Amino acid sequence: ELFAARRGGGAVLNGVPIRVADATSLADGTVSLGYSLRVPVTSMLPLFDKLLNARGMYQRHGSGALGLAWTAAGRLIGYLEPHMNSWDCLAGLLLVEEAGGFTNDFLENNGLLDGNPVIAGPKALEAEFARLTDHW
Fold first, then answer.
1. Whether CATH 3.90.650.10 fits 3-19+27-132
2. What is d(CA 35, CA 72) in angstroms, rounded to the nearest whole number?
3. Listed residue (136, 133, 125) closest to 28, CA to CA
4. pLDDT tens for residues 4-46?
5. Residue 61 in this model has a pLDDT that exceeds 90
6. DSSP 8-state class, residue 20
7. Distance from C-alpha of 73 to C-alpha of 92, rounded to nearest angstrom
8. Are 7 and 94 in contact (CB under 8 A)?
9. Distance (Å, whole) CA 114 – CA 54
10. Where are the domains positioned within the chain?
11. Are 40 and 67 in contact (CB under 8 A)?
C-alpha cells in the first residue's frame, strides 16, 4: 500500500482518494493508541479509563505512522499518542488533515525539535479526543 498526500491536494491510497471515518462517537470504531517511554506509563491510565467508560475500543500497532495512515483511510477512528517525534508523525498528520480529519497543533511549543502529543481523527470526534487527552 502506498499512502500519499499533498497540502491542498487531498490524500490517496494507491492513487485512490481516501477519507477519515464518518464516526460521531467513540463507539463507532477503534482508536489506535501509541505509547512512548519518554512519558510516564501513568500518563496513559486516565485515557484508558475515559475511553473504556465511553464504550470505546482501542488497539496498538506499534507504529504511529501506520496508525495515522489507517486513520486517514477510515480504518480507524483516531490515533492518540502522548509523545512522538516530528520525523515519525508529520507525514501521517498531513494524511489525516488532507483526508478530512483534524489534528492537534503538533508544532506548537517547539514540537518540530522536541516532539509533542499526537491527536488525530474525524472532526466530529475532536472534542471527545480533547476530553480523553486533557491530562497530557
1. no
2. 20
3. 125
4. 999 999 999 999 999 999 999 999 999 999 998 899 999 899 9
5. no
6. -
7. 11
8. yes
9. 32
10. 3-19+27-132
11. no
